[in-house]
Design goal:
With about 675 residues, the chain is of the alpha/beta class. The chain has 21 helices and nine strands. The relative contact order is 0.10.
Length: about 675
């Protein structure tokens, strides 16, 4: 059968049993002195089971999802443990009070054995858990120790869970135990420590089994706490807070010489914050230091002290009945029990009064312990849920601040993100064709003037050399002019300076985001020299300059190439390179500017080079922007998607816990 169906069946059976007891079963105790659950107890038990099961399902679902919130996980685990305390019948009675109020004397009376040292100095400096020995077992002292001083509160909490049956003893981590016979000598050596030893001791708590008095039935545990106003073991000790949260009943002991005080009020406040549904009983220990005063005056003074204590306890929201507040001289009871002073009526009266108090507490508290225990369990679970919700609220508030800071960084960096694209875009390089063509034409004019000055006919090779030299000089002039007009090094320098400016803006953004900028070094990029421009490939010299015979001697001027011919060759070469003259109707395109001509491949090469340079600088800026942004964001929230998912889980967990709290 699936676990959840099995649990629902158990709840249903529990509910039917509760109805049966509600109709037929009155409160009772059987002949073996074992307590029988009443109808009210069963209804409470049913409610505890429902609440515990719901919290267990919540813990099972959400604990794996709160791994990055250890405080929430710990509180959720503690909430689950609190809700399970109903499963075990153990009943924890916490005996507290100021130093020298008579706590230890009361504990010894309840235990019906010497388990708590009594002395004029403070001697109870750590908790002792006293319980009734099991049938067939000897009375003993068990000392729980741990060397991890930083983890004492959690370990004591685990020991109490072990007592309650929530954890097994073998599951206690980092805790060892030693057992000793219950003797006065071992009480002195293992339980009683001086104050300096208590500070350095590795002992967590002592567990003592005794024959027990009437108030110590099976599974009733008495915890003897150090006086909360002691020199070292006082209310500031977190162990006090830990154990106070687990009590099902508080017996508050004060005395005529150590009445309720500011520290007592602080303890009650701490108890109210963590375990406000726990019942409180008051034992006022009467010291006869004013024995010479009339009986009426002494009784009135005791009544005033008792009344003040009751008033202060009620101020903290606790329910405390007058008939559960008692005045008694515990020292006289102890002496009477020891029969130290036989045939002393005053001692016997105190012994009888103590036995009457035991009967009252037994009938009204211990005999009704299941209802009290279950009610306190529900109240304690509710308070623990509230604490868990409070921890979640703190975590959500912290996460909201982190998210706000995260978004602020995103916004700051978004302001400088677009300029990277601006850096990678540059205007395509072009040539001033008009100026370059004019260079060719000017070079042609100069060359023609030289040819016209020398009127001799030229041979084929001479004519070709003149035209070839003209073309070569045009190449040199255009190469120099074209290189100057491109200014690739100047363009690269501008991109470099823009890149450095961009890096500076990113660093300033990081500083505005309260982060140290990442280190970076930006170096200039080398620029390749542009190759010389070649114009010769645009002219077919064989076609342009026909081959002519040269006649010797007197007929030489009638052969070869005349000056007029050479001028024509130069003009044709200039036209093929630069195209038609401005205003010419033919408008022929020259080799210099035509597609695939002399300059276009070089322009394409220069544009590609500048594109690579600008992209290199742009990529450098983009990567630095991205790395800076991501580094800062990761320092705030390592994994935003996982963080948001966890935050949503925390919100859902809070809703589930709130719903559960409302049904208690």
């Amino acid at each position: 059968m699936p676990y959840h169906k099995k649990n629902l069946n158990c709840v249903f059976v529990t509910f039917i049993n509760a109805l049966f007891y509600l109709i037929l079963a009155p409160p009772m105790e059987n002949e073996q002195n074992q307590f029988v659950m009443t109808s009210e107890d069963n209804l409470l038990l049913n409610k505890c089971a429902i609440v515990s099961r719901k919290i267990s399902l919540i813990a099972e679902q959400y604990k794996p999802k709160t791994g990055n919130c250890p405080v929430v996980t710990a509180q959720l685990s503690k909430t689950e443990n609190r809700s399970k305390e109903y499963e075990n019948g153990s009943f924890i009675v916490l005996v507290v009070g100021p130093v020298k109020s008579g706590k230890s004397t009361l504990v010894n009376l309840i235990a019906n054995a010497y388990v708590s040292p009594t002395h004029f100095l403070e001697c109870t400096v750590r908790p002792s858990i006293i319980s009734q020995r099991r049938e067939g077992e000897e009375c003993k002292i068990t000392v729980f120790t741990s060397e991890d001083a930083s983890n004492h509160t959690e370990q004591i909490d685990a020991i109490i869970d072990c007592i309650r049956g929530i954890e097994k003893e073998e599951e206690l981590v980092g805790i060892s135990k030693s057992e000793y016979a219950l003797t006065p000598e071992n009480i002195k050596n293992k339980v009683e420590l001086n104050l300096d030893e208590s500070l350095t001791s590795s002992t967590l708590v002592t567990s003592i089994t005794t024959p027990g008095g009437k108030l110590m039935k099976q599974d009733v545990f008495i915890i003897d706490m150090p006086g909360f106003d002691g020199e070292h073991a006082n209310i500031d000790n977190p162990v006090y807070d830990t154990i106070a949260q687990r009590a099902d009943l508080i017996i508050f002991v004060q005395s005529s010489n150590s009445a309720i005080s500011k520290v007592s009020w602080q303890f009650l406040k701490m108890l109210s914050d963590n375990n406000k549904d726990v019942p409180v009983c008051l034992i006022h220990n009467v010291f006869d230091s004013s024995w010479w005063r009339p009986e009426e005056e002494r009784a009135a003074a005791v009544a005033i002290q008792k009344g003040i204590a009751i008033k202060e306890i009620r101020k903290q929201g606790f329910h405390i009945d007058e008939d559960q507040c008692f005045c008694i001289n515990l020292g006289k009871v102890e002496d009477g029990r020891k029969q130290a002073y036989q045939e002393t009526p005053a001692l016997q009266r105190e012994v009888d009064e103590y036995e009457r108090i035991e009967d009252i507490l037994y009938n009204r508290v211990i005999n009704c312990r299941d209802a009290m225990r279950l009610s306190v369990c529900l109240g304690r679970t509710r308070q623990q849920i509230e604490k868990c919700i409070n921890v979640i609220d703190i975590e959500l508030a912290n996460r909201a601040q982190l998210t706000e800071r995260y978004q602020s960084v995103v916004s700051e960096f978004a302001k400088t993100e677009t300029s990277d694209d601006d850096l990678s875009r540059h205007q395509p390089l072009t040539a001033d064709y008009a100026s370059l063509k004019q260079l060719i034409r000017n070079e042609a004019k100069s060359r023609i003037m030289l040819v016209e000055t020398d009127n001799n006919h030229k041979s084929n090779s001479e004519a070709r050399r003149i035209v070839t030299n003209f073309v070569e000089d045009c190449e040199k002039s255009i190469t120099a002019s074209f290189g100057r007009s491109l200014s690739l090094s100047n363009i690269e320098e501008g991109l470099f300076l823009e890149c450095k400016k961009r890096i500076g803006e990113i660093r300033e953004t990081a500083i505005r985001c309260q982060s140290q900028p990442l280190p970076i070094t930006v170096n200039r990029l080398p620029i390749k020299e542009m190759p010389d421009i070649s114009l010769a490939s645009g002219i077919d010299f064989e076609l342009l300059i026909p081959r002519k015979p040269m006649y010797p001697l007197l007929f030489a001027r009638f052969g070869g190439h005349s000056a007029e011919d050479v001028v024509g060759y130069i003009n044709k070469a200039a036209e093929r390179l630069a195209g038609s003259q401005p205003g010419d109707a033919q408008n022929l395109e020259g080799y210099l500017e035509k597609e695939g001509g002399a300059l276009q491949p070089l322009l394409d090469q220069a544009n590609q080079l500048m594109e690579e340079v600008s992209q290199t600088y742009a990529t450098l800026c983009k990567e630095y922007w991205k790395q800076s942004r991501n580094t800062i964001l990761a320092s705030i929230i390592a994994d935003k998607a996982a963080f948001d998912a966890e935050t949503e889980q925390l919100k859902q967990l809070r809703q589930e816990l709130t719903k559960t709290k409302d049904i208690i």
